[in-house]
Design a protein that fits this description.
DNA polymerase, domain 1; 9-stranded mixed sheet; elongated; Arc Repressor Mutant, subunit A; Rossmann fold; 3 domains; 3-stranded antiparallel sheet
């Protein structure tokens, strides 16, 4: 788009008090953002309230700065990926988002913009998962990615980041994004900073999306709002770990409101991160134990299920191990356990038990939890 069109879109999006719903009504009536700002106050009042009409006639203070910032971002195209701005009605704008009550007026995107979404599933969960939860999210991301699905999540710490990493490792298709990260900041910054490298990898094989203008800081109220985009892009939402009051349950509710499937992985009754998943299951969410459960619930094409089985069999042949070779793992089970409780089960003295736990932890078979608890990790 040229500078005048870009300025009109940004002005419409930045006008205080004019949300996505009012903006859509204005575009439906007048045809384009430029035409909106050619109207008189009386003409605008035929579509929006007098207060909104007055706001539309006032140029936002930061408009000039935002126009320069956005124009420079759009013309600076890296060698490995693309920067773009998709507006409502653009051919690239994801059709899935049009089912929202308030689809974003504009989407800032960064990544492989020539690819498409394909079949997708959202994976969400705790920012502070148990070691088992983080590993589970990564394994599901990899397995579902290998089956040809795009994994949609929010680039947050914990489950989100693990799901993105798994999808990048498992994804094979070149026609669709391996993973999509929907963020709550402007795309000219990465939040959290720890995911700077991960964001770059996503741009190489997938897409980062934001409805927020460049320069937008990580404001708390933006993250629950962006969850509706995560829910809308997926055929269903898989919750790996979530507390009873969490953004993940908000995303699950949004998925239900959009008639999407909601799936949840059960966990230990002792882990607060599992209580939200258990609540979802009691309310009718699909209980999921493996990636095949997800494919069956989403009623995806048989070929994708074949792909999943083929990859799973290949992995089994290459990495087949028997955890029962180490008796301490059998004593642990999969629920978090304290050192004293584990010692009572296995009968080892404290020094020997701690030495074995350290060895298993270094091997990736055991995770250490807050409060002096330990948890056995499933093998990949």
């Amino acid at each position: 788009m040229d500078k005048d069109e870009l300025r009109a879109w940004l002005r419409l999006g930045m006008t205080a008090g004019v949300g996505n719903d009012a903006a859509r009504k204005l575009l439906a009536c007048f045809g384009s953002p430029q035409a909106v700002f050619e109207q008189t106050e009386a003409g605008l009042c035929q579509v929006v309230s007098p207060k909104q009409a007055q706001a539309l006639l006032t140029v936002p203070n930061e408009l000039a700065v935002q126009c320069v910032r956005t124009h420079q971002w759009l013309i600076h195209q890296p060698d490995t990926h693309t920067h773009a701005l998709w507006t409502l009605g653009d051919a690239h704008y994801p059709a899935e988002l049009l089912q929202l009550a308030d689809p974003p007026l504009m989407l800032y995107v960064m990544g492989q913009t020539e690819r498409t979404l394909g079949n997708a599933v959202a994976i969400v969960g705790s920012r502070n998962p148990t070691p088992q939860g983080a590993q589970t999210a990564e394994q599901f991301g990899e397995a579902l990615g290998a089956a040809g699905l795009c994994i949609v999540s929010g680039l947050a710490l914990g489950v989100d980041g693990a799901a993105h990493k798994g999808a990048l490792r498992g994804g094979t298709t070149q026609a669709h994004w391996h993973t999509v990260a929907v963020v709550g900041t402007g795309l000219d910054r990465v939040y959290p900073r720890q995911h700077q490298t991960l964001a770059g990898q996503i741009a190489l094989h997938g897409l980062l999306i934001s409805e927020y203008h460049l320069g937008t800081a990580p404001l708390a109220h933006n993250f629950p709002k962006r969850n509706r985009i995560i829910a809308a892009l997926g055929l269903g939402t898989l919750v790996v770990e979530a507390a009873l009051k969490s953004g993940s349950l908000i995303t699950a509710k949004m998925a239900l409101d959009l008639n999407r499937e909601v799936l949840a992985i059960p966990g230990s009754i002792h882990a607060t991160q599992s209580h939200g998943c258990h609540a979802l299951i009691r309310q009718g969410a699909k209980l999921v134990e493996n990636a095949q459960d997800v494919l069956e619930e989403l009623q995806l094409a048989p070929q994708q299920q074949v792909n999943l089985f083929a990859n799973a069999l290949g992995a089994d042949e290459e990495t087949s191990t028997d955890d029962t070779d180490h008796p301490l793992l059998t004593h642990m089970g999969f629920a978090p356990v304290s050192l004293d409780a584990l010692q009572a089960r296995c009968g080892l003295d404290t020094a020997a038990l701690q030495a074995q736990l350290l060895t298993l932890e270094l091997d990736g078979a055991v995770g250490r939890l807050p409060g002096g608890l330990f948890q056995r990790l499933a093998t990949a």
